[in-house]
Specification:
Chain A: It comes from Microvirga aerophila. The complex is a heterodimer of chains A (about 375) and B (about 525). Chain A has helices spanning about 10-30, 45-70, 75-95, 105-110, 125-150, 155-175, 200-225, 230-240, 240-245, 250-275, 285-300, 305-325, 330-345, 350-365, and strands at about 185-190, 190-195, 195, 280. Chain A has about 375 residues and is an all-alpha fold. Chain A has a domain at about 45-295. Chain B has helices spanning about 1-20, 25-30, 40-50, 55-65, 105-120, 125-140, 145-155, 160-175, 180-195, 195-205, 210-260, 270-290, 300-320, 330-350, 375-400, 400-410, 415-420, 425-445, 455-470, 475-495, 500-515; strands at about 70, 75-80, 85, 100, 365-370, 375. Chain B has a 4-stranded antiparallel β-sheet with strand order 3-2-1-4. A two-stranded antiparallel ribbon of chain B has the order 5-6. The chains are: A mainly alpha (about 375), B mainly alpha (about 525).
Chain lengths: ~375, ~525
């Protein structure tokens, strides 16, 4: 297998589309009249921004599942932890504007009769610290979890199930009021970020653009990982873990590294999600959420990176439409999608399209060898 | 006529005075009721209650209900039927005197009346009433009841009531300063044999001036009772744990079969449990509508039906989806998750999103008392049922040809295929069996949990934990896994609280999997890595 370049045609297309979106959405929102067909309404901007943060989350899952064969059913936990870190910063920014007007304690702590800020809330009023925590907390959890799991060679469905147990345990923990993260209600009622009011249109546009930039950067990072020598080893681990180990690679180190990076990307996605949605609560830890992320990746095309982005956008757009138009059919559609994709379209939209393209090319006099991803094997 | 009546009246009066002449405290006390002063009434009440006179209970009752009447210094009882009795003799009294007035009582007197009643009903002919009275005296520790109590103990024949009476006497003696140390030690011993929380509370109220040996005995008795109570408490928690473990076993055992044979995690397993519960609901609705007399048997009718319904859905799923995904366990996991969403939404569409009422047959309500343990019948039934299901499955896997094939496929699929076992068919049957068992688990769970479309979801993670903890080598792993998790959960609960206990347990399992990645009872050998 020859080394792939960082920017192949797919990467160029993804980056251009993201760049186009980052320009076009603000322009169409601000420049066009509300009645026009091209107009993007004010509530659509944060919605699209939310899709982009989901796409970044899907990208992080594709990095480990598509390229290293680790099916994490707990990536929602890293996403939510990143979101909580951002939420804590936003809570501290409320200051005395809360319902109880306490200059230091967030409303829910006043409500619970707490006298002092718990130690783990220290520093979150300072944005750089919160930003570091957004990456550090999910990364540290993934590192510790992965260090235990990969070292003792927990693989396959066993790994999937303990990741699910992890996010379930975190969900139960965050539902407790004593944890100091707002319990059932989570963190909400945010006012501003870095001094810019969250409700204002310009802040929302900037957040959208930032999401697009973060997604592009995440994509480039993943792209860089999978095209490097590291990426080759990861694919080898995915396809034949024992053989790779016998060749002398420390499989667990590779897995641990990519798992940690992936968790940090998920945390970043959560941090982008929270200010655009305006709330973070323990429901984000629900195991069902994490499984849903996996299906985004499967729909778009596992092991393609671009497919993960595509899948996240398509499925979430579908969800928005369904829950608005036919709410009782959404679960049928989602469930059917799981079955349909795994049975009939195992390579997802992008993989299937690539196959079709390759077949069409093969019928013509061939110019170069196809560069499709090999079929994944467990 | 008139003169005759007067003579009679005079005669009765004379008789009354005559009895007065050589009468005891009862007769002496009665006229005080007529004084219309609360303190006199209370004094009279005390004397009457302590007199042991056969009429004293009627007098106290009448006083409580405002039926004790006074006229001209004489006391009468108006019976609930309206008849007027002379309180001294208990004989019916002719025409009512003109100036008949009820003896008034206030709250202080009312309290005294209650205490006196407790003492007096100690002598009631009804054993239940005596028991209640003994308990009331035990709580009030009213020293005035002591003579009556002695009397009651002397003639008590009922062992339970006698014990209650004795601990009531002990309660009184313990707190009285003028009791000999021997009596007090006997009282402490009696309380120690009673051995409950109330006895501990009572022992701790021992007056400060008690002799050292009495205080010593009391604190020893309290410590002994406390450790005994702790033991019972632990036993109760273990019982809760076993009952939770049985629920987990029922929910997980079908999963263990499908996971063991096919190596796939069936995410729709919880929905099979839910379908079993809804089958119970439908069966009960039909019985209510067409044959209400058979309600007690509804669960027995629902069991085979739930097995069939869930089992056939399982076979259907295997034939239409899972068999195309062999060798790809992670994809199977996703596909079955999708199926679980579809099944949930289907049930929600048909039966609505709210909880459905599944009734409990009469024979399952109530509780079995073992020592200080209270074992509710529905929990007992579930433990017994889980054990039955477990043993049955064990026998099926051990002694039937299907079981032999399933075990062969579990151990080495390709080798089993080479020996002529039709592995596809075994997969379908094993999947059907696992789903059917989940269905009958649903019948059992419908008795202790809400029947809603989300029923399965709440068990699926716990079931996974049981299976990965126990390992898939054999069913014993599932049993050990379920019981360990159930008991550990309930033993942690008093210290850590329900939620934190569960979190601790989840973390413990995650760490345990690091030590033994294939669970407690792992399959060994070459087939494992395949």
């Amino acid at each position: 297998m020859k080394t792939q370049s960082l920017l192949d045609r797919q990467a160029v297309i993804v980056l251009s589309l993201l760049g186009l979106a980052a320009v076009l959405v603000p322009v169409l929102n601000v420049m066009t009249a509300p009645g026009s067909a091209l107009h993007i309404s004010d509530h659509l901007v944060p919605l699209l921004g939310k899709y982009l943060s989901f796409a970044l989350l899907a990208l992080s899952v594709d990095l480990i599942w598509g390229f290293c064969g680790i099916l994490s059913l707990g990536h929602g936990a890293f996403f939510a932890l990143g979101g909580y870190a951002m939420g804590m910063y936003l809570m501290r920014q409320i200051g005395p504007r809360g319902v109880y007007a306490d200059p230091i304690l967030p409303d829910f702590m006043v409500f619970l009769n707490w006298k002092d800020l718990p130690w783990f809330w220290y520093g979150f009023d300072w944005f750089p610290y919160a930003a570091i925590m957004v990456l550090l907390v999910p990364g540290a959890l993934a590192f510790v979890f992965g260090w235990f799991a990969f070292r003792s060679r927990v693989t396959g469905v066993y790994l999937s199930i303990i990741t699910q147990a992890m996010t379930f345990a975190l969900m139960l923990a965050f539902f407790r009021n004593d944890m100091g993260f707002g319990g059932n209600n989570g963190l909400t009622d945010f006012k501003e970020i870095l001094g810019f009011p969250l409700q204002s249109e310009s802040t929302r546009i900037v957040l959208f653009v930032l999401s697009a930039v973060a997604l592009a950067a995440g994509y480039l990072l993943c792209r860089w990982i999978v095209t490097s020598k590291l990426g080759k080893v990861l694919v080898a681990v995915r396809d034949a873990e024992s053989r790779t180990r016998f060749l002398g690679y420390r499989v667990e180190h590779y897995k641990l590294a990519v798992f940690t990076v992936s968790a940090m990307l998920a945390g970043l996605a959560g941090a982008l999600y929270v200010p655009q949605v305006g709330i973070i609560n323990p429901g984000e830890f629900a195991p069902a959420n994490s499984i849903e992320v996996v299906i985004w990746v499967a729909v778009g095309g596992r092991g393609t990176l671009a497919g993960a982005i595509l899948g996240a956008l398509v499925v979430n757009a579908g969800k928005t439409w369904f829950t608005g138009a036919l709410p009782e059919f959404w679960l049928f559609a989602l469930g059917g999608l799981f079955v349909f994709v795994t049975l009939l379209m195992p390579r997802g939209i992008l993989g299937t399209a690539q196959d079709a393209w390759t077949r069409a090319r093969a019928r013509l006099p061939s110019r170069s060898a196809p560069n499709a991803l090999p079929h994944a094997a467990e | 006529m008139i003169s005759l009546r007067n003579i009679l009246q005079a005669f009765v009066l004379l008789l009354g005075m005559a009895t007065c002449a050589y009468a005891g405290p009862y007769e002496d006390a009665l006229p005080k009721f007529a004084a219309d002063s609360y303190s006199d009434t209370e004094a009279a009440l005390g004397a009457v209650a302590g007199s042991g006179h056969p009429l004293s209970l009627s007098v106290v009752e009448a006083l409580r209900d405002g039926r004790l009447l006074a006229a001209n210094g004489q006391i009468f009882i108006r019976e609930p039927s309206g008849n007027l009795l002379n309180a001294v003799t208990g004989q019916a009294f002719g025409p009512a005197p003109q100036n008949l007035k009820a003896v008034r009582i206030n709250n202080r007197v009312r309290r005294a009346v209650e205490a006196a009643m407790g003492g007096l009903t100690l002598l009631s002919s009804d054993a239940g009433a005596r028991m209640d009275a003994a308990r009331a005296v035990f709580r009030s520790r009213d020293a005035a009841a002591l003579p009556t109590l002695q009397q009651a103990i002397a003639k008590e024949t009922h062992a339970d009531v006698k014990q209650a009476l004795e601990s009531a006497r002990a309660a009184i003696l313990l707190n009285q300063a003028d009791v000999s140390p021997t009596d007090r030690l006997a009282a402490i011993a009696s309380l120690r044999s009673r051995g409950d929380q109330e006895a501990v509370a009572l022992l701790s109220t021992l007056p400060a001036g008690a002799p050292p040996e009495v205080a010593e005995a009391a604190s020893q008795a309290a410590a002994a009772i406390r450790s005994r109570l702790e033991l019972w408490n632990a036993a109760q928690n273990v019982w809760y744990g076993i009952s939770l473990g049985s629920v987990l076993l029922l929910a997980a055992i079908g999963l263990a079969i499908t996971f063991g044979t096919m190596g796939v995690i069936n995410m729709a397993h919880g929905e099979m449990v839910m379908i079993g519960a809804y089958t119970t609901f439908v069966v009960q609705e039909l019985i209510r509508a067409y044959a209400p007399g058979m309600f007690g048997a509804s669960l027995f009718i629902a069991l085979p039906l739930a097995f069939l319904v869930a089992g056939s859905i399982g076979v259907l799923i295997e034939r239409t989806v899972i068999r195309f995904l062999y060798g790809r366990p992670l994809e199977t996991l996703l596909a079955t998750w999708g199926l679980s969403l579809i099944l949930q939404q289907t049930v929600r569409t048909i039966f609505g999103p709210t909880n459905r009422e599944v009734g409990t047959p009469a024979w399952m309500s109530g509780a079995l008392e073992v020592g200080s343990l209270s074992l509710t019948y529905n929990r007992v039934a579930i433990v017994v049922f889980a054990a039955t299901v477990f043993v049955t499955l064990l026998l099926v896997l051990r002694y039937t040809s299907l079981g032999l094939y399933v075990r062969a496929v579990t151990q080495n699929r390709r080798m089993a295929g080479s020996m002529g076992i039709r592995t596809n068919r075994i997969d379908a049957l094993a999947f059907g069996l696992g789903s059917g068992v989940a269905g009958i688990a649903g019948v059992a769970l419908s008795q202790i949990d809400n029947v809603s479309p989300n029923l399965g979801q709440s068990y699926i993670i716990d079931s996974f934990m049981v299976v990965v903890f126990g390992g898939v080598g054999n069913l014993w792993g599932t049993l050990v896994g379920a019981m360990t998790l159930g008991v550990a959960n309930k033993l942690l609960e008093p210290y850590a609280g329900a939620v934190l206990g569960k979190i601790v347990l989840l973390i413990a399992i995650i760490l345990f999997i690091q030590r033994r990645p294939r669970g407690l009872f792992a399959l060994k050998g070459r087939a494992v890595e395949a």
